[in-house]
Amino acid sequence: MSATNNMKGKTGESNNHGPIIPADVSLPEITLRVIVLGVILTVVLAAANAYLGLKVGTTVSASIPAAVISMGILRFFKNSNILENTMVQIMASVGEALTAGIAFILPALIILHVWDKFNYWQTVVTGLLGGGLGVLFTIPLRRALLQDRTLRYPEAVAIGNVLKASANREKGDLNSLTVGGIVGAVIALFQTGFQVLTDSFQYWVRAETTIFGFGLGLSPALIAAGYIVGINVALSLLVGIVLGWIAGVPVLTWYYGMPDAETANQMAIMMWRSHIRYIGVGTMLIGGLWTLCTLFKPVITSMATSFATLREIRLGNRKASVRTERDIPIHYVFIAAIILLVPIFFLIAFTIIPQDAPISSGFRYFISGFSTLYILIGGFVFCSVMAYFAGLIGSTNSPVSGMLVSALLVICLIFIAFFTTQTEWSEEMKEMIGSVVAIGSLVVIGAALAISNDTMQDLKVGEIVGATPWKQQVMLILGVVVSSFVIPPILQLLYNAYGIGGVFPRPDMNPAQMLAAPQAGLMATVAKGAFSHQLQWGMIGIGAFIAVVSIVIDEILKKRFGTRLPVLAVGLGIYLPLDSSVPVVIGGILAYIIQARLNRLYHRGEPADEPKVHAHRHRGLLLACGIVAGASLMGVILAIPFAIQQSSDALRIMPDEYMPFAGILSVIVTFLLCAWIYRVVLKKT
């Protein structure tokens, strides 16, 4: 019998009123099998989310899939326990978080043509430094934020339920995840590999003075991601789609004239690239700043609480802590943070700033020193915001883009002020050096920011199950190390196979399969535009106006109707291509339809029916997570033959003359996928 089963009689009461494993009970947590399984899942989930992050600019939390997979494997060991599952889950989730922090920003150097490939060791060091800071920043925040009972940590509670299922040896969860993964992988294989199906379907018509039409995205991974994020984000994306594509493309084509292209489909894409996405940039810029303003008071409160706790520790007023309250000693945290500043300085001074840049050594060191301090101070502020957001709305829905854009704008504006003293510099030199250093610094902050957001959720899971915090933090650091070494080759593999952000490693590659990298494209656009003064301020101004209107509507909806219109999602709907945004909308609408059906099947609010409704929701979440993981992993697997053959058509079996049927067949398959998800989720157990 397992150690967890032995504890059932002792922990049954604590399931509702305290941790599952009490503080006075010690069970094995960091074991050899935990480390081996954690390393494997970290690599796998990092690879899956690298593809998804570059494709659509978002990642899906790996915590629940990692917990379920760990649960399914560790149950074969008789002496396994729930705390081991927790350690595997927290390490594996780092792979997804660090991938997001790097993949959202670092490709901007490819897009700006500063890099022609992902430099391995520079990317590794960046991941180690940024991820390490992210873990360190959350240690002094942990107690303050977890004691704030206004923060619900929705995803952490869900993970806690999954781990409870592990303790009770519940079946069915792993089956849902596995079946979803198989379905997602098969559809992705026929779409991207064999190309019997397509992941996009465009239909645009040319009139006398304009074009109009629409497009569909049919990616199973993005449909499942939409199912997870829900109806509010989906409808906000739909608002952006309507403003940017359905209304924006015809109006701007009529105003600016027809783009020089052969087909209406190509004209629509050209209009989006030259005008529409800048409207999205403006919307996301203002949305990011607004998000920062609304969180100013919670951030100050959180930081004040954290520093008060640190002061008590320094003065020795803290009582001896129990096992479930022991962090890595705070003086170790401070020493480690100071030590990390040294390699960060050298990283910026001698690798991020080009060695052949014609600047004085003094100014090089000044810029590097300021950037290092900004990473420390500004990074802690923004990481505090993201850690707070993990408790407020969950890590998946946290506005990472808003925080990154805000951090980038601040450092760009400061650099512009610094560069006014360099009168001998040309504007091109200011643009090049400023963009590179700003984005290079932002990569470190972005890695720390993503880690802090995910880490706070995982630390809450530890509180629920009764894990030892310092052991969780050790596993987080180990996850950062493993992820940092595997992310660079994954990014390079994907770049070689698909191209990123309009930049291709080889000529004659298929633009339809390019990884859009919208977040990195946004960062490149903001940085370059800030220094070159060439941003399309008219389009950005329109986007800013849309953001203001969206913010007003969001506040009204929030106060009067208890729902939301997230402004950053509206901006993302304008900014993304249709094949990336529409499937998320489809998934969100599907989730709403299923929830509406559940409300009709069961008496809403009845305590007796709540477990049944929860079981349906839980099954749907696991199924969607499986589809995302399966389809995303297939994208990474297919990148291998594509890179070897140097062609994304390496496995194609659909003849050219039958390609129009691929779109029709894909629409049918997408409908059947949604119908299958609907049926499986609503199936009674």
TrEMBL record:
Cellular component annotations (GO), alphabetically ordered: membrane
Record-linked Pfam families: OPT
Localisation per UniProt entry: Membrane
Annotated transmembrane regions: 34-54, 60-77, 97-115, 121-141, 174-191, 211-230, 237-256, 276-309, 330-353, 365-390, 402-420, 432-453, 474-495, 535-554, 621-644, 664-682
Chief localization: membrane
Top-level taxonomic group: Bacteria
InterPro entries reported in the protein's UniProt record: Oligopep_transpt (IPR004814), OPT (IPR004813), YSL-like (IPR045035)
Cleavable signal peptide: none
MF term (GO), any: oligopeptide transmembrane transporter activity
Keywords: Membrane, Transmembrane, Transmembrane helix, Transport
Membrane topology term: Multi-pass membrane protein
Protein name in the entry: Putative OPT family oligopeptide transporter
Phylogenetic lineage: Bacteria, Pseudomonadati, Pseudomonadota, Gammaproteobacteria, Legionellales
